User: Fold these one by one.
Assistant:
Number 1:
Amino acid sequence: MDIRMISFQPHGDARGQLVAVEEGKELPFSVKRVYYLYDTVSGVTRGYHAHKKLQQILICVHGSCTIRLDNGTEQALVRLDRPTEGLYVANTMWREMSDFSPDAVLLVLASELYDENDYIRNYDEFLRYVKERA
Ligand code: TYD
């Protein structure tokens, strides 16, 4: 499966590190929403859904976590463990997030506002949706 990682340039100096993410440069879409997951309980897996329209970039800005992606045909596991690396998640992609380290902060840049109607929360429905689009 084609996994698209986006590298962010750290602007480090003697004081520490800084990463800037700008529309039209590092990002393939305009960001309408930002959210982040933290204090994720050990052993928990989240997500279990796909989106019809929403695109996202996932950045584990602190700690680490694993993202499982499934396009209906192929699956991939991606470990996110650095603040200079983003995982692009296209629409129509089933995702599960797991193996969060206790200090993990997963930042999500999203192309759309929150819309429950954009979610596909049933895996069989997701497979049907992917087939219909093909
Ligand atoms: P949920 O969709 O269960 O998270 P995930 O699927 O990533 O594990 O979201 C948890 C709660 O947060 C749920 O009540 C919906 C709410 N929420 C918002 O209000 N706005 C948002 O942008 C997101 C992502 C979730």
Note: The mean pLDDT is 97.
Number 2:
Amino acid sequence: MEQISDDAHVMHHPTAWGPLDTRLSRRVSSWALRSGAGGPAAGPWPPAPKPGAETLGGHAARQVLRLCEAAGLSGADAAEYARTLLSVLGPAGERSLDLPPTYDSFLSDDHTPVEFSLSFVPDEDPTLRVLLEPGYGADDLAQNGRIGLQVVREMARQWGFDTKRLDELEDLFFPPAPQGPLALWCALELLPGGIPKVKVYLNPAASGQERSAETVREALHRLGHREAFAALPEGDRHLFFALDLGDWEEPRVKVYLAHHDLSATEAAGLSRMKDGSPEEPELRTFFRTAAGHGPDATGFEAETGQDARLGRRPVQSCHSFTETATGRPSGFTLYIPVRDYARHDGEALDRAVAVLGRHGMDAGPLIRSLSAVTSRRLQDGVGLIAYLGLAYQQGRPPRVTTYVSSEAYEVRPPVAVPSAQLEAVH
Ligand code: TRP
């Protein structure tokens, strides 16, 4: 029977895709050759892998090269950012993809320590970002955190920014025996010019889940945001504490909350911004469109009714603080884990296109980005688009963010549709 069996949950790279086209575009590879990045006789950089010899770093670096091109960055910037990614991954980047992930990184569903995203505003090219776990491959979470700190401090030296605000929090987020689900992640905004903007993500549960609220309160307090904790809405868990480091106009301190079984109406009430707060109907529409509960609902197993709750992976909210005068956040973001509420990535993309269209944004760069990271068909998996986000920051137009998985290790199979199940039976 030519049917994917029910227990074929997990497809391993690269066999599931067939040979991935890893040729570099002429623009990127010719730049890399000219600059001698791979040595004069070394050929394109990074070199295309021999069959079966694909490494994590090679896979992700090639994705970055192609994504940079899709996002309109120059070949020089693309090559620089591919190199940056490899140096952040360190020795873990040299691991063969035939080996399983070193540990169950929480960064992505298949435990690849890399995730891409595009941040859209109207009338401009989107910004490409990459989320990385520098300590991936460490022996334990304590070492993972130490490597993470080292790598961020190295970036600070290289790009000339200070890590003062991170240093002030070190004892809170890096105890001797930290607990999960992460130690330190960093995100890079890949701007033209080869020098990224840097964000750091820390784990409020480092000293235990039961201490996470207190850890967040103390961290906010140390950074001068003395009333910020009291301004946060209720949530089920403090997931991340994040800092903008480096050359930001208005560096933010961000607190991420998880919300289980959330409805669109509840989600629309989560912003605590003082000015420029999102319109509640706009947030509800975003929630329903992303979750597949919209007017042309395709949400599988969607509860009926206008206010269906998202009962699988929780929705997240992010509250960002840029000033200490009002005690209130100046930014709010809602993240819908679209992958857990869609059958396959074709459906997830349709929703992303609908959200982008509603906000006057062109989905072209997202579509190009998906083919930059994978050659598989969208309907053959789910999870390539991990989250859809809608971000508000006082004084700025709303942004739509789309999170694109690297899928270095696995592609999650699509949810079977009833007709396919029928075919399987007969
Ligand atoms: N993989 C984690 C999750 O699904 C963390 C994460 C990665 C995340 N990218 C994200 C959370 C984007 C929110 C938005 O929660």
Note: The CA atoms of residues 135 and 147 lie 5 Å apart.
